[in-house]
Structure formats: C-alpha cells, structure tokens
Amino acid sequence: MRSGEQSGRDVLARSLKGQARRVGLGAALGCVHQLGEALVPVLIGVVIDQAVAGRDAGRLALWLAVLTSTLLSTVAVRAEEIHRSVLAGSSAA
C-alpha cells in the first residue's frame, strides 16, 4: 500500500462510525426479524398442541392471533428495513 492511501479497514471503520446509529438500528431490526421468523415453527407447534389436539376453539383463536401478530410484526420489521434502505439510497444520490 502506498503512503497516504487508506486501507479497506480504515474506510470501513470510518463509514461505520459515521453511520453508527443507522447500523445499530438496522442490526436491531434484523435481529427482531430473525427472531420472529424463528418463532413461526414453534408457534405452529404450540397451536397444534394447545388448540387443535385439544379441540378447543377459544384456544385455537388465541394462538392463531398470536401467530398472526408474530407474522405481521416480522413483515413490518422487514418493510421498515426496506424503507430505510430506500431512504438511505435516495439521500446518498
């Protein structure tokens, strides 16, 4: 590397420092999204165990509401990530 040139590591570090809030928020939203995605099969198992196997319509409605809210929250988090990336792209231009 020539004198005066920045390494890739330096450029990355400077970029992350300048966008620390956005990077942190994006990472947090990504974690929430992944957690929601991971919970879907677990919740489906709970729905089957608690409601379908027990033939309880009230519990079925409750667990389906929980499953629906989990799915909607993962979609909302993903939509927020896409929205932020679009805004970041349009402000960079």
Walkthrough of the structure:
The protein has helices spanning 8-18, 20-52, 57-92. The longest helix is centred in the last third of the chain and has 36 residues, at 57-92. It is an all-alpha fold.
- Order of helices and strands, N to C? HHH
Compute the number of structural domains: 1
The number of distinct β-strands equals 0
Low-confidence residue ranges = none
The number of helices is 3
User: Overall pLDDT, averaged?
Assistant: 82
What structural category arises from helix and sheet content?
mainly alpha
Computed over alpha carbons, the radius of gyration is 21 Å
Brief digest:
The chain is mainly alpha-helical. The protein has helices spanning about 10-20, 20-50, 55-90.
What is the topological layout?
Blueprint: H1 8-18, H2 20-52, H3 57-92
List keywords for this structure.
mainly alpha, 3 helices, 0% strand, 93 residues, single chain
